[in-house]
Amino acid sequence: MSSIFSGTALRLSVFGQSHSEAIGMTLDGLPAGIPVDPEELQGFLNRRAPGQNDWSTPRREEDRPEFLCGLKDGRTCGAPLTAVIRNHNTRGKDYEQLRILPRPGHADYTAQVKYGGFQDYQGGGHFSGRLTAPLCVAGGIVLQMLKRQGITVRARVLRIADVEDESAFASSVAEKQFPTVSDEAGLRMRKAISDARREGDSVGGIVECVIRGVPAGIGEPMFDGVENRIAQLMFAVPAVKGIEFGAGFAAAGMRGSENNDEFCLSDGQIRTRSNHAGGILGGITDGEEIVFRTAFKPTPSISRPQRSVNLETMREETLAITGRHDPCIVPRAVPVVEAAAAIALSDLILGGKKAWN
Amino acid sequence: MSSIFSGTALRLSVFGQSHSEAIGMTLDGLPAGIPVDPEELQGFLNRRAPGQNDWSTPRREEDRPEFLCGLKDGRTCGAPLTAVIRNHNTRGKDYEQLRILPRPGHADYTAQVKYGGFQDYQGGGHFSGRLTAPLCVAGGIVLQMLKRQGITVRARVLRIADVEDESAFASSVAEKQFPTVSDEAGLRMRKAISDARREGDSVGGIVECVIRGVPAGIGEPMFDGVENRIAQLMFAVPAVKGIEFGAGFAAAGMRGSENNDEFCLSDGQIRTRSNHAGGILGGITDGEEIVFRTAFKPTPSISRPQRSVNLETMREETLAITGRHDPCIVPRAVPVVEAAAAIALSDLILGGKKAWN
Amino acid sequence: MSSIFSGTALRLSVFGQSHSEAIGMTLDGLPAGIPVDPEELQGFLNRRAPGQNDWSTPRREEDRPEFLCGLKDGRTCGAPLTAVIRNHNTRGKDYEQLRILPRPGHADYTAQVKYGGFQDYQGGGHFSGRLTAPLCVAGGIVLQMLKRQGITVRARVLRIADVEDESAFASSVAEKQFPTVSDEAGLRMRKAISDARREGDSVGGIVECVIRGVPAGIGEPMFDGVENRIAQLMFAVPAVKGIEFGAGFAAAGMRGSENNDEFCLSDGQIRTRSNHAGGILGGITDGEEIVFRTAFKPTPSISRPQRSVNLETMREETLAITGRHDPCIVPRAVPVVEAAAAIALSDLILGGKKAWN
Amino acid sequence: MSSIFSGTALRLSVFGQSHSEAIGMTLDGLPAGIPVDPEELQGFLNRRAPGQNDWSTPRREEDRPEFLCGLKDGRTCGAPLTAVIRNHNTRGKDYEQLRILPRPGHADYTAQVKYGGFQDYQGGGHFSGRLTAPLCVAGGIVLQMLKRQGITVRARVLRIADVEDESAFASSVAEKQFPTVSDEAGLRMRKAISDARREGDSVGGIVECVIRGVPAGIGEPMFDGVENRIAQLMFAVPAVKGIEFGAGFAAAGMRGSENNDEFCLSDGQIRTRSNHAGGILGGITDGEEIVFRTAFKPTPSISRPQRSVNLETMREETLAITGRHDPCIVPRAVPVVEAAAAIALSDLILGGKKAWN
Question: CATH: 1.20.1600.10, 3.40.50.970, 3.40.50.300, 3.60.150.10. Which one for C4-350?
């Protein structure tokens, strides 16, 4: 696999399988001296953790990272920072039947082809959504660093099934357990989730992320621009099938005169009148809000019977997935999107080349 | 900048500015012995070249690459392959006025902030769409390699302005000058482009790419899966603002029971009944067609007056862009999308780790 | 820091500090299905472990790695492989005095400058020789893989202080506790170590490594040839100050007619009559033994009084290092050299590009 | 191959073959605004160019780089900087006989195995020493940048055959055509070269490099420390077979009390009394001179008859190399060593992580 990311300044290693001894991450390249507040980190991780509400899997994991190294007296010490989370609440037998009957929409089949039967199939192995927990540990740490620089990264549920949140983003979503701007839309989304669950089905959705406070001049085009980097990291999150920045796909239907963001002066600062670019021009930040949306497919694990092919007998069979599964992972994906975006951005900020002087 | 891409097996360096002596590329990591047919390559490059029809800029460039090294007797020799294209038809004076008055929607302003005034602003410098020519040289070469392995990469214009092509892809688009499945839709798209041009405006669109013949098992998750890799390269193409794989954003509105692609047997092979996954599960190919769509914003260079800020006087001014510009870059972007996808895929195929035996 | 290595096929993350909760490593990019024998691995690690004889520090650590993930039923499963070793026998108070009085020959001072006082100074932190334990875990695993391919990596103590081993290498050193070809030279080396220890001093030495069974054609010049890669990894080992391949520095005094290895036929195979090249021509293996030598400086931690500068008072002071230290790390470095070489070679073998066919 | 180097901040692509249309390099990641003086660069390149004296090959090449892009008004513009040198004085027929009869000490045989006969064998192809010209273009540019920061990189011939220069380095070598401290030793070295040439043979030697003005705190251990990085780049230079830093191999014979560099105060600055470490502790600079030595094997191309194996008939044959070859490449390697060291150092300085504040 290729689960070590080498960025401009940061390197991130994510390891573990759904049912291995532990999962974890190593983050290398952070400057020494960055304060890490474990309480604040835990609060961030709790937003992703399952089993805390009515719309996610009842599997309960503490997701309490143990820091093995890289911190000294509450600050980064310059050495690689490693944290692990033990896997406790694993129920291997749930998955025994799936070894030879790949679940539609999952990586069971592609892993079998690629890893020749040696892959860890239990709980999806390294492909499990559980691996977003270490991603959130890394993200939670750099989010604290960014916050000290006046940068906030905030995401919300923009859509679930056919329910859309208000179009205008509001940072007030940060405090909400179910992060939508409109509480009414949020209630309808939760109902859509409950309905799907009751019918043994699942729903997908869209997460929108807004990053404020990033100065102009961040990003390394052509291949490591802000969009390249965020996209590369976002597709590491299971179930992500699309990403768009600013007006995104809607820009395809616009005229240039509509879509172009004219420059203006505001309090003596160069700003743009609109933000269809999502804060990024030529792969480089322009000082406006960075805005992007990520599409999540519906959770593939559903209890409704599905057809599959038995890899041993090579015959078609009907599969009924049991076990504990989220009918919708979108609400829990909100902090994951923030984490991945924060890692991408921190990397570009820390590694940013400046003009010579 | 970061215009050297380091993949799993391939490294690609893209260099040049719109008005520098030359632009070009170096591709390293190709096995020795791959045949390169220069005629076929030129045919591919001509699909991107400007000035050959009524919907693009009248600036005419030959885009005829000179190979400096890396080939011997028509085959790769294992050493880095470098090709350059001389810049001839440059009209520097067109851009003099733009030095201090950044064009909305362009990287003029962000480059100024990042490179402190040292950037080459002429014609957009390294940010120019002209830099997609060397990308196509690299892509055209690996496309030939892929074709010998039975892999075809084909894109089409799915949408321009508010005109959509037929939903079903057909490989017959390959032969068409204006690559849409429906010729009638193509005609309406061309009209939308002409209308925009006449009004001093521009339009955007969507390119859809379909890759056939890729075996199951290609891709290196988490960070170098097929989607991560294609997305990272696609955002190196100017004007791209979004990408989605398979059902993409539409999957957000589906139920799991709809979106999941059930496995079935076809001629003794494991296949899927539908292809909402776009041929990719867990970042790894499943043997179905790889399908993705890329959103292009409307060309930012329009002749209609726009507001901007003079960087010297720090006052708002009105800007009128003259010079030669495509009212829509989407048709010319079709081979560029194919090139970027082919590079991403070749890299993962060449560098693919297999199970041990 | 930069403690994640990204090779051609493998990625290696080494983490931990001398006195952190744990040290460990993550190895990513190994094919699935490689058998890992934990007994054999432990035997390899024991060769590096301290406190097992009269020539090393009495600090006793079990160096028993716990595998957190990446293995299934005794084989690699394709996912990143992570192993950690808990730090138990730590005596933090030994180092309190050193916080402001940097030890000559150590990284105490350079770490202070670079990490601004936030570094973990205890026991040398991430710079400690203890970090070679996770390097040996990674190396021990790939050594097993190489052995199955008929490749052996064997090192010996070639020199300690002024005592030299026999010039001709013999693989019989593999079974010896003190790995020299000549037992008599080994005894004299051990005496040199004892003498140094008794006098509160230390000695350095040279380790020679011989790799057999590597086929011709491995290595990726210019920048990832066999020599580049082995050298890059070898200088990650504390105390290494030089490396030479084949005749090495002695080649500087030779004539071309002496140094060139003429090609000949042996059992129908192309071989060379001599091996001054150390098995590498143009960065690529030629099928002969790979031979290189690594110079280790004497352990900087000595109990004899030394002068240093107090970083708080900015006055010169005399420093007396107490605590437990090896008077010579060279014997324990032998498996470390094997490990680093095995990682370098495995990476190039797994990632090797072949000619096209 | 792997002829694109990805460092901490810089990426360097070196391309071309001895007899291809051109050779060249792309350097990416330099900040915008760095002045490049072409005269000064040419002066540097002339130190490497052949045919200018009595000790090198009479093949004359201008080695006058054409900059294709990356510069604007004499300064870097932030975009990749590409320069090419055309190959003119090529005599392909010299090499026809070598296609099937590999030269001892050259990469002819290993290239044949690796690239399956598709390699460019003429003049050694990509393995030719001629490829050090683009390395010197890149090095010459960053040397100018370093000089503006008060950093000088100076190398000298320390040894040729059995003739040694004075042990103490003196920066006066910079002005000399034959860079030795002792002119008398230089004369004897030139005689050793002439003797070898007359006898149809060649000699090797050692180049010593001294870097002054580097502040403490540069280098990214474990894998990208100063030694790792310099070593990785130095082994990209043909004929290099060894490298040592500071006391190097001699440290192996020292006691710790001898080898350790005690800290002291000098003009209120922390310095060391000696410099056996060669300015590097734990992979990080300590503010002292960086000192290293590189061993070059004798030029493998000699006119004396040598035995080889005909790859077509698979019979041993006698080979007599004709054509133009340096009897000793060491004097011309002096600027190459400076170039490679300057690239390594610039990369670490530009990409250097600092403590957080």
Answer: 3.60.150.10
